[in-house]
Amino acid sequence: MSLFWGIVVAGIGAYIMRASFIVLLSGVTFPSRVIRVLDHVGPAVMAALVVTTLTNSAGELEAGPIEFVTLAVMASVTLWRNNLLIGLCAGLIVFFTLNSVV
Residue 6: in which H helix or E strand, if any? Predict the structure, then answer.
């Protein structure tokens, strides 16, 4: 199997796995406590990504000015728009723009 078809098969498998949760759980009603907990998953994942980006495997800070500018922009946009996805997109745009310029 070529690399291309391996990627296609892996993509189809990933899509089927994600879609299966939507289909299988479409009739399930979750308790309000579960919904409240799930609201915190996005910010927790974002915090984990930020920490692993700013530190090395020994836990020492190794981020430079580009990472800190990106973090400040992402946090500001997220608080301003009250939307984690918009903040993430703004942070990615700033990060890649600064990395290509500097």
Answer: helix 3-24
